[in-house]
Amino acid sequence: MKKYELNIRRAKAADSGIMADIHCRSWSAAYSGLLPEEAIRQKNATRPALWSRLLQTEQTDAASYFLAEMNGTPAGMISFGAYRENPTSSMGEIHAIYLLPEWFRRGIGTALLDFAMRELKKLEYQQVCLWALSTNRNAIAFYEKNGFVQDLCKQEFIGKTVTELRYSRTL
Known about the structure:
The protein is an alpha+beta fold. The protein contains four helices and seven strands; from the N terminus they run βααβββαβαββ. A hairpin with a 4-residue loop joins β6 (149-157) and β7 (162-170). The longest helix has 20 residues, at 37-56.
């Protein structure tokens, strides 16, 4: 059995294509059947430009981007930082966590989540939140397994197609 070594490193501008690929492939796999296929295609079409722009700017405590590699092969990514709705609060936010489908259910998501929570705690955040589609049972089960609890915040996502629920936990 092959031994895998996980490395989580800060994403660089040269990683924008990899980050966009992870984002697109994860979205397609995770949201197929949960969102209209046209909405997935439209969102995915914006990813290369989004990641190029995000990784061209200096990363700060408000938004940091990390790439997970298994034996040097891209496997997933995570973005975290200040809570976007209230950046001065004591709550941090996991802005995005995505894995390539071939790396689902291998512990990488948990490792990325643990990494982000440690980093947010170092930045003196007291709580962390994230958002999940109300219909994404796999994501919700994963977040709940990792100590996140749904709070009372909701928001519409892609118009009124689906509702996002906020989950939070103490760091």
